[in-house]
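Notebook B, p. 112. Complex prediction, attempt 2.
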Amino acid sequence: MALIQGRFLDNIGRVYGIYTGGFIAFIILMAILEQLGVGANTIGILFVAFTIAIYALIGWLSRTMEVDAYYVAGRQVPAVYNGMATAADWMSGASFVALAGGVYFGGYGYMAFIIGWTGGYVLVNSLMAPYLRKFGCYTVPDYIGTRYGGNLARFCAVIVLVVASFTYVTAQINATGTIAARALHIPFSVGVWFGLLGILLCSMLGGMRAVTWTQVAQYIVLIIAYLVPVIWMSNVQGFGIIPHFTYGEAASTMAQLEAQYGLNQPAEPIAGLSVLTTPHTGPFGELAEWKFVTLALVMMCGTASLPHILMRYFTTPSVRSARRSVAWSLLFIFLLYFTAPALATLTKLQLLDPSLPTAIIGKSFDEVASLAWIQNWQSVGFLAIADQNADGILQLNEFFMRPDIVVLATPEIAGLPYVISGLVAAGGMAAAMSTADGLLLAIANALSHDLYYKMIDPKADTSIRLIVARVLLVGIGALAALIASLQLTGILGAVAWAFCFAASGLFFPLVLGVWWSRANRQGAIAGMIAGFVAGSAYLYYVYTGGTPILGLDDLRFGIVGMAASLVAMVVVTLLTPAPDEEIQRMVEDTRVPVGPPILAAKH
Amino acid sequence: MSAESTTTDVRDRYWQKTRNLTILVLALWVFFALIIPTLVGSLNNVTFLGFPLGFYMIAQGSLIAFVVLIWFQNWRQDSIDDEFGFGEEE
């Protein structure tokens, strides 16, 4: 283990430098192979297989049988690298694969996700991360259980964590399935299991330590894969190599093109596929501003309560480095998120702007139907064109696409070489795998540490605890893959639910645990139960066809849950006695960044 | 004055400063995350770098503000920590 311990940490910059150089060399090699006539399919397979093999190697090198290493990577991850790992943990299949597609089809309204998923880090930094790090816990329920005391509080936190993370992880495995299906030319249902295998290779042997170092590697792959096509496309369209500050004109042109083609509903909708009906640059429809703000708010509070993110900040050496690594995380995340609207805008322009050779809207139907990329995606059922008004011309409302393929299809749409498509597939795979790793680990750790070790068998010895953790990891992964293969909801939908569940049940108990020393056990339990039950009940009501109240649909049910949680927690706390002196002192200690952690190092 | 109460006093003043900083950061956060989106319609009438300003703020402006806000907070918090002797050597 010397390789991955002391020596590794001393040389970490060099190790990842070599890795990045190696990856770029691999991309160049693939480009050369493509020029030599190697088929597109082979290149796609090589990209996905090569990157997964690297992650698996890192996972194997980081194997461990130590509790501290398994749960919190030995608490020695430097801030910058923890920032990268958090960014990969955070940017899921939804961010990488589906977000730009959501902006493409949902227009302005979907950008609430972008605000929510970045602004949430301000909450993480100011309300949560430094204090939870000072506490010295292994898992989020560990914090709830110790701060409020008692197994019931711990158990409630475990339930909320499992529901939120499980909803999320099925979406990630769904994303790996989608990408594997396209890149490796295998059926979706097989792709899902293939994805799970890759995920488990990264996390099973080394727990948090293995996941940390693979996530850093995955971040490097995913950010390169996201930026390269955008930069390329922007260069071709004449917006320069850094499009972020120059695509303003494209955004303005969009409004004119939308007016020219008309944003109409399709004559005959096709199930599972979307047409463009919402404007790109501004709010649209009833309660648009309110809907935007509520979605952004619930995503932000969800960010600050999702355990797989919070537990990343348990791995840093100190409180200060926990804070610093939140700042790095947001910077690394920001790189992708402020690119997503640019990607959506430029891709949309590729298809809509008649002055570009790649435009398809307004072209003759037969011409479009013969394009290779249309046929490729049509053959897997992710895209359709239908001449519903029979005029022989493809109208905007006759072009149907699954929103979550926009990013994957962009290189082909823009006519980029296939090596870029392969790169994007590898990046999407990295994004989905890294998040799935973090989530599966969060669930398995909560169940093994909080449920098994703390509640069922406190005398269990280390090796048993770590074996239980791994068995749970495999079992939960298999269950998630099984559910993902049923394809219940789109990638972005399931992700939003996870945030709503986490915000409903955990946000106020976590925040008030730090910021309100009067908050007591009864209040926290009431807050978790009321929030979670109210949120779930409201989700059930809306999902089964109930009319959303004030525009709060199934993506925003967390608002209802959070309101219930806050009221219940405050009222019940005030009606019951204040927590004892020991707990109050514990809260005081949490607020001071120096000194020993509240919980013993090995607990 | 006993050592115990001095520590409590220092802690209280430390916490007060930390809390004030947090409130300031959260107020700025509310502005960029929650107020700006309600103004997008009117901001879109202004052009910035060729973008409709409202769209720009949501696609980039607020994001940049969040990044700056966190770095600013950490810089301030570090100096508060150091002032009270709570800064950690790394």
